[in-house]
Design a protein that fits this description.
396 residues, mainly alpha, disordered N terminus
Length: 396
């Protein structure tokens, strides 16, 4: 038993001794080697010792960071590009200084907070931060963009640079926006939304950040609760701007009365609100109320005759109405000449709407499948020449 206790004491003494000598061990080492040395000892170090260790990393890496800063500054003046890897020593120095400051401002063994490294690190590294912004903006690589943006954000949020940033940080919003852009490319919707929501506070990137936020939030709409939370967010951002989306989503989750109220209020506020009429049409369309949908869509294109998607929806509604009518008026697969004329009248209306789409979108850039819909209608009308002409256009 005594032997076991003795062994434990020896191990504890060795750990303590190793921890106390951490800076001495790191001196003379290359940066990567010093990182490994510190990481292997971290679990046995006090906050004070960790601060010393991270500060030693700053000491080791600072000459390379300073050289990188000078090289990048010269390259910017000469308008030449540098590889993102050149920024690595600067990022490392900032990250290490932030970690150093975190532990340097924790109580020491005597319970006192007596920071030793803040002023020196803040003074020598503060100017390095802004050089990361242009690089984060220019790179299209998501990992590199995030690497640079995170270093800037972390340093901005650290008390280490509080004095330098007491008047505010003019580039924090940009960095948050770049982080959101990187996470969006990585399809990390939660992180995208988190950083985009912060970036919205920066007027210069507000509009684009808002787009990332709205898009990211739509990716996680799995339940009604998710949708309601999203709708609240849209209301908070800009209820008027996202009126159509809000009304449409309320209808999709079964809140049709609330959707209708939002749309009617929008029309009362602006009788020429084309999106309000378009969504009223879509809501009626989803309920297969073809006549109501056609009425609202017609009002939409009265306001905006070039609204191609609505002309297409008119075609869908009219053709659906015609085929439904054909089914209602047929008996045992047969239909009278009089009733057949009624059906064809509706289908001709549909053909007219699709022809309008053809006029507005001849190259199928907005609506790719209008030729197939129009050909189907012409076949149903027995106008085979027109149907064949579309097939020829399609190369079929």
């Amino acid at each position: 038993m005594k032997k076991i206790i003795f062994t434990a004491l020896v191990a504890a003494f060795a750990t303590t001794s190793f921890a106390q000598d951490i800076v001495k061990q790191m001196k003379g080492q290359a940066y990567s080697e010093a990182v490994s040395t510190l990481n292997s000892a971290l679990s046995g170090l006090s906050a004070e010792q960790k601060a010393k260790g991270y500060n030693q990393l700053v000491e080791i890496g600072y000459p390379d960071a300073s050289k990188a800063y000078n090289d990048i500054t010269i390259a910017n003046v000469q308008k030449t590009k540098v590889d993102i890897s050149v920024y690595t020593p600067i990022v490392n120095a900032l990250n290490d200084a932030v970690k150093c400051d975190e532990f340097d401002n924790q109580p020491n063994d005597k319970g006192k907070v007596a920071p030793k490294f803040r002023k020196k690190n803040a003074d020598r590294l503060a100017n390095f931060r802004t050089i990361l912004i242009n690089a984060a903006n220019e790179t299209t690589d998501a990992d590199k963009k995030l690497f640079l943006a995170n270093a800037y954000i972390n340093s901005s949020e650290s008390p280490l640079f509080a004095e330098a940033l007491k008047a505010g940080d003019p580039y924090l919003g940009y960095a948050q926006f770049f982080a959101a852009a990187a996470y969006y490319k990585m399809e990390n919707w939660q992180k995208t939304a988190e950083f985009a929501e912060k970036a919205i506070k920066c007027e210069d990137v507000k509009e684009n950040a808002e787009q990332y936020l709205v898009s990211a939030l739509t990716k996680n709409l799995k339940t009604k609760a998710d949708t309601l939370s999203y709708l609240k967010k849209l209301n908070d951002i800009n209820a008027d701007k996202y009126m159509a989306q809000i009304a449409s989503l309320y209808n999709q989750i079964g809140e049709s009365q609330l959707s209708e109220k939002i749309l009617n209020d929008a029309i009362a506020k602006d009788p020429n609100n084309k999106m309000a009429y378009a969504i009223k049409g879509e809501n009626a369309m989803s309920d297969k109320k073809w006549d109501d949908a056609i009425k609202y869509f017609k009002k939409t294109v009265e306001i905006d005759p070039a609204f191609t998607a609505v002309w297409f929806n008119l075609g869908v509604c009219a053709s659906s109405k015609g085929f439904d009518l054909n089914e209602q008026l047929s008996e045992n697969g047969r239909i009278t000449a009089e009733n057949d004329a009624k059906v064809k009248e509706v289908l001709k209306e549909a053909a007219g709407y699709y022809e309008k789409v053809r006029e507005l979108d001849p190259n199928r850039e907005a609506i790719s499948n209008w030729p197939y819909q129009l050909r189907m209608i012409y076949n149903a009308l027995g106008e085979t020449d027109k149907a064949n002409e579309i097939s020829k256009m399609l190369g079929e």
